[in-house]
Design a protein that fits this description.
By secondary structure, the chain is an alpha+beta fold. The chain has two domains: about 60 residues, Winged helix-like DNA-binding domain superfamily/Winged helix DNA-binding domain (Arc Repressor Mutant, subunit A, Orthogonal Bundle); about 180 residues, Beta-Lactamase. It contains eight helices and eleven strands. Strands 8-7-6-11-10-9 form a six-stranded antiparallel β-sheet, sandwiched between helices. Strands 3-5-4 form a three-stranded antiparallel β-sheet. A hairpin with a 6-residue loop joins strand 9 and strand 10. The longest helix has about 30 residues.
Length: about 270
């Protein structure tokens, strides 16, 4: 049954589009490939003829789509019977999805107690390319507080969470950021590449990151890494607060709270390291 959502219609206006024309943003070949991928996941061990029948594709089209999925590592063709099963990259997607879904579940249980211990707003961010994205948060019950929201994006090189996730990012991501333009948000934003490199090394050595008026002139923050069961840093746990309530000389207290909480967070995701 086709349960695709309707797309908006655009009426004629100054752009000259005709009334009643609907614009679809989906790509048919990609949709068909995804359907096939799910079929292989659910019906592993079937050949191209059966998969074509189940998916409603011609045998030739199913073969082309399966070959594309095979070349990307998402499915593999098994000999001698020429049947298909999931490939190693599908395992990566599944593991990542499990980790991220678990991350959100744990965050829902842990953020409020952590926030109440800090008496400040706390949030979880993940890296998405050259940005960080807020995936969970708890707002402190103060009239004056740092407010975040789901999906809020920030550059990877600035702020406590950004610098922490950049420090743990693959080398090509780091070099891409360091070789590009570093926007200055405040007088405290680190925009010199040599200085930022030193800061990233310091973060790795100390196991946490701080931000003193770097993204906003009235905000401070501390962040620590959240690790999955394999030890990979998948997110940051951070506390943000107005500098009027948390001056520089009081940040150490929050560093200890956030580092300890991030360790407990990681343990809840299966990490058994120190």
């Amino acid at each position: 049954m086709d349960e695709s959502l309707p797309f908006p219609s655009f009426e004629a206006g100054c752009g000259g589009q005709q009334k009643g024309i609907s614009m679809s943003y989906t790509v048919d070949a990609v949709s068909k490939a995804i359907e096939l991928l799910f079929l292989v996941a659910e019906e592993g061990g079937k050949g191209v003829t059966e998969l074509a029948r189940l998916s409603g594709n011609t045998k030739a089209r199913a073969f082309r789509l399966l070959t594309t999925l095979e070349e990307s590592g998402l499915v593999r063709r098994q000999t001698p019977n020429a049947t298909y099963s999931l490939g190693y990259r599908a395992l990566i997607i599944g593991s990542a999805a499990q980790a991220q879904l678990s991350l959100i579940t744990v965050a829902k249980d842990m953020l409020e107690p952590i926030g109440r211990e800090c008496n400040e707003s706390v949030l979880v961010r993940i890296r998405d390319g050259a940005e960080t994205v807020c995936v969970a948060w708890w707002d402190a019950p103060h009239a004056l507080r740092v407010h975040s929201q789901l999906g809020d994006r920030r550059p990877l090189f600035v702020g406590a969470s950004g610098k922490l996730l950049l420090a743990h990012a693959p080398e090509d991501i780091q070099e891409g950021i360091l070789s590009g333009k570093l926007e200055r948000f405040t007088p405290n934003t680190i925009v010199k590449r040599t200085e930022l490199r030193r800061e990233l090394k310091k973060i790795l050595a100390e196991g946490h990151s701080t931000s003193l008026l770097e993204k906003s002139t009235d905000m401070v923050a501390v962040a620590a890494p959240i690790r999955d069961a394999s030890g990979l840093v998948i997110a940051s746990l951070s506390m943000t607060a107005p500098v009027t309530r948390v001056p520089r000389n009081k940040l150490g207290k929050y560093v200890d709270i956030i580092k300890f909480a991030a360790a407990r967070f990681s343990a809840s995701l299966g990490y058994q390291g120190e």
